[in-house]
Each structure stands twice: as C-alpha cells, then as structure tokens.
Write a structure and sequence with these properties.
The chain has about 110 residues and is of the alpha+beta class. It is built from 5 helices and 2 strands. The longest helix has 10 residues, at about 55-60. Pfam families: Nucleotid_trans.
C-alpha cells in the first residue's frame, strides 16, 4: 500500500537490536547482576519504566550515565536543568479548566 502511494518500491530490512547493547530501563536499572555480566557492551540505555523528566534525569545521574553536563560548555544548549514541576493547586485548577493569573497584584480566575 505505502509503496504504491509513494510511487516506487521501497524495501526496508528490520532487525532486532541486541539487548546487551540496548537494554530497557526495566532490565538495566533493576538487575545489577545482568549489568555486571554485560559490562562494556552497553551502547544506549533506555530510560523507560519511570515517569517524569526530573525522575529520568536523576536516575541517569545516580547511575553515572548522565554525561551531558560534563560537556555543557561545548553545547549551544548549555547546562540542562531540572524542570520545575507544577504545584498541586495549579494541577487541580487545570483539571477544572481554570487558569489562575495575577493582574495588578490581584489574583483572578479565568475560565
């Protein structure tokens, strides 16, 4: 179908990546024995099985896998920081479809 739509015959070969080189977060971060047995073979460690930017960043830092900041002086992005999470009240208001803003020192609810 896609080949006919594009107008030419496209062939794509698909291969599984070796788990020792590309482990999931569930395997890498929860199985120390496996990590030691495959030491030196890891190419990319997926940071899945965890939710949230700050939690992922902290886990990479805790395991010595966050190397970005060591070279931040070479990057046009500079140092990456933790993002400030919204507080609980803001989340509740968003859920109700309201946004709280400040106008001349007074808070107003905007629907």
């Amino acid at each position: 179908m896609f080949d006919d739509f594009v107008g030419f015959n496209l062939r794509v070969d698909v291969y599984l990546l070796p788990q020792s080189a590309f482990p999931s977060g569930g395997l890498y971060f929860k199985n120390k024995k496996w990590v030691n047995e495959t030491n030196g073979k890891h190419v990319i460690v997926h940071n899945n099985y965890i939710v949230g930017y700050n939690q992922k960043l902290k886990r990479f830092q805790d395991f010595g896998l966050w190397l970005v900041d060591d070279f931040s002086h070479e990057s046009p992005l500079g140092k990456l920081e933790f993002v400030q999470e919204q507080n609980t009240e803001e989340k509740k208001q968003k859920g109700r479809g309201r946004k709280q803003t400040e106008n001349r020192g007074q808070k107003q609810n905007i629907l």
